[in-house]
Amino acid sequence: MYQIIKVGDPILREKAAEVRRFNKNLHDLLDGMLETLRSCGNGVGIAAPQVGVSKRVVVMEIDDEVYELVNPVIVSKKGRDVDIEGCLSVPNRHGKVTRAARVKVEAQDRFGNPYTLEAKNLVARCVQHECDHLDGVLFIDVMSEEVEVEE
Ligand code: NI
């Protein structure tokens, strides 16, 4: 289990490093990120920099499905969708963010096998939010409007 790094910590602003070794360290990281995400209760995705590890690793859990994305690259985006986002690293703030409605992502699994994910709706939104984390971008940088949300 990890502690969530909060906005203000410079690691959240770094460009995360590509993963080259698909070993036990990576598997422990992925497992720990999922455990941490679940312990937060209200999150659907987490990127490694949010647990203090500047690597290109994302874990999401949406509708009981777990997604592990290592070195994800969004290769195509279609449509537009505006919705409200929050972030485990930016507590108590929410904002409207325009994202692509559908994305195609090329990534690797925990063993290094490449795969393609075609995502829409919340999965697509989450992929874009988490991939932003890998480049040091937070939703507060790209939101069009801050909104009040009852937690
Ligand atoms: Ni986030």
Overview of the structural elements:
- There is one protein chain.
- It contains 3 helices and 8 strands, in the order αβββββββααβ.
- It is α+β, with helices and mostly antiparallel strands.
- It has one domain (10-147): Peptide Deformylase.
- The strands form 2 sheets. It has a 5-stranded antiparallel sheet with strand order 1-2-3-6-7. It has a 3-stranded antiparallel sheet with strand order 4-5-8.
- The longest helix has 17 residues, at 24-40.
- The structure holds nickel (II) ion (NI).
- Residues 87-89, 129, 133 line the site of nickel (II) ion.
Short description:
This protein has 3 helices and 8 strands; from the N terminus they run H-E-E-E-E-E-E-E-H-H-E. The chain has helices spanning 24-40, 121-134, 139-142; strands at residues 45-47, 57-62, 65-78, 81-87, 90-99, 102-108, 114-120, 145-147.
List the helices and strands and how they pair.
Blueprint: H1 24-40, E1 45-47, E2 57-62, E3 65-78, E4 81-87, E5 90-99, E6 102-108, E7 114-120, H2 121-134, H3 139-142, E8 145-147
Antiparallel strand pairs: 1-2, 2-3, 3-6, 4-5, 5-8, 6-7
Nickel (II) ion is lined by residues 87-89, 129, 133.
